[in-house]
Design brief:
Blueprint lengths: L1 H10 L7 H13 L12 H4 L27 H13 L2 H10 L9 E6 L3 H12 L3 E6 L7 H9 L3 E3 L6 H12 L8 E4 L3 H9 L9 E4 L2 H12 L7 E3 L4 H24 L7 E5 L3 H12 L3 E5 L3 H9 L3 E2 L2 H4 L5 E4 L9 H6 L4 E5 L18 E6 L2 E5 L5 E5 L5 H5 L4 H20 L9 E3 L2 H11 L12 H7 L13
Parallel strand pairs: 1-2, 1-4, 2-3, 4-5, 5-6, 6-15, 7-8, 7-10, 8-9, 10-11, 11-14
Antiparallel strand pairs: 12-13, 13-14
Family: Belongs to the adenosylhomocysteinase family.
Catalytic activity: S-adenosyl-L-homocysteine + H2O = L-homocysteine + adenosine
Keywords: Hydrolase, NAD, One-carbon metabolism
């Protein structure tokens, strides 16, 4: 896919006869800093020479070359983006300030595999400020913000990631994170489970030193529970995805805002009156449906779980089977965490110019592989947008090749990521400092008290004032005045 992207992107520059002409254009654009995240306006990818980052020798200002990013010279832009993100991540910054003195992560050697964006950079730098050493790679080949990766590399984080990696690059970056002489990780922070999977496959001995895994996605948590069931999980793991502060916030409110952003930036689609089918009515599906409904779209939901289906009915959505509406809908969005939800048979029956995209973590929900056949023509329209054309001329608009739409094609709201990142940081601190035997080789939820602590750190941004229980009220409810207020299953 990388080849196609460059071939098409280069056409924009053929108007400039000389190499210097093209260079100067790229320079003037990058100085106005439009070379940042937005997929449609990201010219730097193409104007940079086509040498793979793996072939380049780059060093940061301190002379270190212990990283691999697209272009270290973009570090200054990345630093500005990180500073903007910090403005809306006050809770994480306040955690950083509170704990900076005692360094609860001193001696922690964390390998991480997440989206590399301005927001996760704030998390990574917080972990470093709390005493950890970090090595990082990307959990998605499209979601890295190159200039942010450069800023992290400049700050001394060993980061291996760039936007538009090939499948081979993806695993190479993860490998470079893990496999290094004289440095042995003792914590894993994962998003999607790929890093954990790679360590199991290639370097199982590392688990002797690992104190715990923190995982933040439905997909990765699912993989951990499978390992646990099979008796193969040899270290404790913290399931951050199902902690309330992740599920009810990141999955719901983040997707409610970013689904529209990703679709608008890639297709300029108008939603009023459009027929949309959302596959899956979990927290992500609920967020997507709420946003689409608010703009006047006609929304259908597909669901396997009777409870979620009933919730969808109560919220005013028609619950259908995908095959019942596939011929008439204008947009298909998957958010199930499953595989082969949209099959080739569905794609064959779609109407002309139907938009197909995925909001789940993995690119398995839409059967994209089935579209790579000789009778179908692929046309790259712009970065992350492909037209797949059938022999009769019908087109389907496929976004980000079926990968995560919001992080591949737009950005996600900073504030909500502060909530998730604070939860991750606390989970790492908890596992790293836990006394021997507190956590067995199993998957755990973050203690409810910590969930409530994360939420309380975020309330000052809204000037929100909590009511306090009187002794009498607390006794009546059978609660401690300071919480936890909810049972663990909430």
């Amino acid at each position: 896919s990388q080849q196609i992207q460059f071939a098409d992107d280069m056409q924009e520059f053929t108007k400039f006869p000389t190499k210097t002409g093209r260079r100067s254009l790229s320079r003037s654009i990058s100085q106005s800093s439009t070379d940042s995240y937005s997929s449609a306006a990201s010219y730097t990818d193409s104007s940079d020479d086509e040498v793979s980052p793996r072939e380049k020798q780059q060093t940061n200002s301190k002379g270190s070359s212990n990283f691999c990013v697209k272009n270290i010279k973009q570090a200054e832009f990345g630093r500005r983006e990180i500073e903007i993100a910090e403005q809306d991540m006050s809770a994480l910054i306040s955690l950083r300030k509170r704990a900076q003195g005692e360094k609860p992560l001193a001696g922690a050697k964390i390998i991480g595999c997440t989206h590399i964006t301005a927001q996760t950079a704030v998390l990574i730098e917080t972990l470093c400020a709390l005493g950890a050493q970090c090595r990082w790679s990307a959990c998605n080949i499209y979601s890295t913000q190159n200039e942010v990766a450069a800023a992290l590399a400049e700050a001394g984080v060993a980061v291996f990631a760039w936007k538009g990696e090939s499948e081979d690059d993806f695993w190479w970056c993860i490998d470079r994170c893990v496999n290094i002489d004289g440095w042995q990780a003792n914590m894993i922070l994962d998003d999607g489970g790929d890093l954990t999977h790679w360590v199991y496959k290639k370097y199982p001995n590392i688990f002797k030193k690992i104190r715990g895994i923190v995982e933040e996605s439905v997909t990765g948590v699912h993989r951990l529970y499978q390992l646990s069931k099979a008796g193969k999980l040899c270290v404790p793991a913290m399931n951050v995805n199902d902690s309330v502060t992740k599920q009810k916030f990141d999955n719901l409110y983040c997707c409610r805002e970013s689904i529209l952003d990703g679709l608008k930036r890639t297709t300029d689609v108008m939603f009023g009156g459009k027929q949309v089918v959302v596959c899956g009515y979990g927290e992500v599906g609920k967020g997507c449906c709420a946003a689409l409904k608010a703009l006047g779209a006609i929304v259908y939901v597909t669901e396997i779980d009777p409870i979620c289906a009933l919730q969808a009915c109560m919220d005013g959505f028609r619950v259908v089977k995908l095959s019942e509406v596939i011929r008439q809908v204008d947009v298909v969005i998957t958010c199930t965490g499953n595989k082969n939800v949209v099959t080739r048979e569905h794609l064959d029956r779609m109407k002309n110019s139907c938009i197909v995209c995925n909001m789940g973590h993995s690119n398995t929900e839409i059967d994209v592989t089935s579209l790579r056949t000789p009778e179908l023509t692929w046309e790259r329209v712009r970065s992350q947008v492909d037209h797949v054309i059938w022999p009769d001329g019908k087109r389907v608009v496929l976004l980000a090749e079926g990968r995560l739409l919001n992080l591949s094609c737009s950005t996600v709201p900073t504030f909500v990521l502060s909530i998730t990142a604070t939860t991750q940081a606390l989970a790492l601190i908890e596992l790293y400092n836990a006394p021997e035997g507190r956590y067995k080789q199993d998957v755990y939820l973050l203690p409810k008290k910590m969930d409530e602590y994360v939420a309380s750190l975020h309330l000052p941004s809204f000037d929100a004032h909590l009511t306090e229980l009187t002794d009498d009220q607390a006794k009546y409810l059978g609660l401690n005045k300071n919480g936890p207020f909810k049972p663990n299953y909430y």
